[in-house]
Amino acid sequence: MTHLTDPRALDALFGAPAETSLRKEAAHLHPVYRDWIARSPFAVLATSGPAGLDTSPRGDPAPLVRMPDAHTLLLPERRGNNRVDSLRNILADPRVSLIFFVPGISETVRVNGLARLNIDPALLDSFALQGQAPKCVIEVAVQAVFFQCAKALVRSRLWAAGQPAERPPVPTAGQMLGALTQGDIDGAAYDQALPARQAGTLY
To answer: Which residues form a coiled coil (predicted)?
Structure first.
């Protein structure tokens, strides 16, 4: 057999996740994640519907989204090609996932939740840029938030050609872990060991 079909075989192949991989998840927009997401100008939105799956980019000057409270994200739907695949999917299946990027930073932050389309005129006007309001705002009720390690972006060298002169003031992986675990995990030690660990485990 060359294909995995049994979850137990999958677990045996990869082994148990590290404590840090489990402790980094929050069921709300923890302040350390709010700080990180507020500095993101770009995200990829994943949706599912009767016609299948969809992933599509979203971008604006940071902050890309608003976070009116610890359980809500507001993402303006800017002008595109009018396929509105993501929006059609949301009408059929509200489950969504977003991955947020910050240029020059190799960690990403994922948000999973349930979405609906808000067309309140006052809300749309508040998101206007260059005189143009979005047609709707994707309102996400947050269910899970966690950062994803840097290995994929390090392997891809995504930012290698354009690293900023100074690191943007976003929380480090260790700072996020330290905050999310109330100091149970030593964030400074995690950050100190991270470069060597990443270099030794890319493949």
So the answer is: none
